Amino acid sequence: MPLPLRLMKFLPFLLSFLTLSAFAEEREDTYYRIVNLPTPVATSPGGNAPEPVMMEAGGLCFLGPDKLACSSRIGDIWIAEGVLGENPQPKWTLFASGLHEVLGLATRPNDKEGWLYCTQRCEVTRIRDTNGDGRADLFETVSDPWGLDGDYHEYAFGSKFDKDGNMYVGLCLTGSFTSENPYRGWCLKITPDGKTIPVCTGIRSPGGIGFNAAGDLFYTDNQGDWNSTCKLQQILPGRFVGHPAGLKWFDEPETKDAIAAAGLKKSAEPESGGRLYLEAQRIPEILAPAVYFPYPRMGQSTAGFVPDLTGGKFGPFKNQLFVSDQSHAMISRVFLEKVDGNYQGACFPFRRDFSSGVLSVEFAPDGSLFAYGTDRGWAGSGSKPYALQRLEWTGQTPFEVLEMKVQPDGFMLNFTAPVDEATAQNPASYSMESFNYIYQKSYGSPEVDRASNPVLSAQVSVDKMSVRLEIAGLRPGFVHTLKLPGVRSAGGRPLLHNTADYTLFHLPSR
């Protein structure tokens, strides 16, 4: 039956409302579903009823297609078989116990002897089961040149192995403020023959250490003194990554010879109260962060990370980093690019609502992402004290900003789906502002030096997969926050996440 004429003129508005209402129900779990895995239980002495094991997150490492090793902060290593599939009911085996806060697990490729490398607070240890009973019985020290005492914060995070067979350890400061024991605040490299080599200092309180898709080394660090906000930072030999407490070991008898043998040069002490990009002009050893995570909007305890090397099994974000946050029980997404040889890039919200604060992440052979959580130390926003969960792509592609690449006068945005040309070419669909942080010995920093960066034009590509934004007043050394509330896909969908934060230290030449 035809609509009355007086209603016909309202039809476009009605259709627009219905379209937006349909998409208003879109949520992160439409695209990425969280699967809960049962954690182990153990029988109490005396034959009492089984009780849950305190699986406070440590490290993760796949030992086979469906076999996962999980270490805990209380010093256990459990192995789970059967962690994949629709309704996982893994079989758990206690592989080792009595270790000291294992925050890294790794295996060497093609190792036929079955060694599992564990980064403990006190050392890197390799362990294996020699008699086939499922329990580790041989423990060997690989590296232990760093110092520790009873301080709660003296974490040691260990990486996987790089292509040359090296692994790396990131060492937290004493109390997260000072370096009272050798190499606290340093990154150390452990070679295949067990030699330990100092790499750089400036670390404050790491939450994870590992590699991007290109095999370059990064770590995450947490907000505090000399750390304005949480960050993702590349590690390069001889560079200084921000916190001065570890500089003392250039001159101490226990460490100075090894540091000199590594060819490292002591950086000048930074001055408190300035801006990091200006201090980097004065101190050539300073290496700027690749990505800042604005605090607390993009998390408060940045932790483990992993690149998407699944070849499309996890969706459209090939080679990008997925970075966990322990306080907010969330995972964010990071796009990195190189400008004049320097890493920088953007962070995006990705998935919230994990059951516990996510400390470590690991991709499974089937392309799903495991998230291992704990609320020990700092309360996570999740509802449980610990959790092991799996994040699966549902096969539906969210409408997102896929990549954000800096241009001499703006940014190139690539999307996961074609854009609606009318909304995407309208500068009013976007807004941008930039801000900085104070580089100081006080704890953290407010966002300062804030200014608007007007979007002057938006040019849509022929295939409608990209938009080039011309933006006024880009500022090297500043975080640039982009909001895209007005952009729609060609099918009328809003962006699942309509904000991005690009850490800009280097502008490309024209």
Describe the structure.
The chain has 2 domains: 32-393, Neuraminidase; 399-504, Immunoglobulin-like, CATH 2.60.40.1220. The protein is globular and about 70 Å long. Residues 1-25 have low confidence and may be disordered. The protein has helices spanning 5-8, 11-24, 256-261, 276-282, 421-424, and strands at 32-36, 41-42, 51-52, 57-64, 67-72, 77-81, 91-96, 105-106, 116-119, 124-128, 138-143, 156-158, 167-171, 186-190, 196-201, 206-211, 217-221, 230-234, 291-293, 302-307, 321-325, 330-339, 342-351, 358-363, 369-374, 386-393, 401-407, 410-415, 431-437, 447-452, 455-460, 466-471, 478-483, 499-504. The protein contains 5 helices and 34 strands. The strands form 8 sheets. It has an 8-stranded antiparallel β-sheet, with no helix packed on it.
